Amino acid sequence: MVDLNEIVDSRGSLHIFERFDDIPMDVKRFYILSNLNDEDRGFHAHKELTQIAVCISGSCIIKLDDGHKEIDIKLDTPSKGLIIRPMMWREMRDFSKDCLLLVFADEVYDENDYIRNYENFKSLAQKTDGQ
Ligand code: TYD
Known about the structure:
The chain is mainly beta. It has one helix spanning 118-129; strands spanning 2-3, 5-9, 12-16, 29-33, 41-46, 51-57, 60-65, 70-75, 80-84, 89-93, 100-105, 114-115. It has a five-stranded antiparallel sheet with strand order 1-9-6-11-4, with no helix packed on it. A five-stranded antiparallel sheet has the order 8-7-10-5-12. A two-stranded antiparallel sheet has the order 2-3.
């Protein structure tokens, strides 16, 4: 998780995402997930892409799996971003009605960068670890 800069005063809250020194990521694309319902999403990993997901309204759960272990992370604040590095299987679920998920990506959309089959992902992740 990364903390976004937060400036709060009587007028409201301001959250700032600026290129972090510790994250070598230039944003080339962002997308927004909205009108989410009880259908889970994700079910893929990326070979090269790094993303940062920020839940700017409501809440949801993101499951991350590196091929060895998995962890559920609840996103429910605009003050934190979840870094999703390459070769990380993700599944999103339990979206609140008002959930808005803003996702920053360091590359433009490329379907060839997706791994959409879990077994393929798992064997690739384990091969990469062995190198
Ligand atoms: P996908 O990444 O599979 O959605 P999720 O992981 O949220 O379940 O994307 C859904 C569809 O949208 C898929 O056909 C690819 C397309 N898409 C784009 O064309 N550009 C984009 O930047 C993204 C994220 C998806």
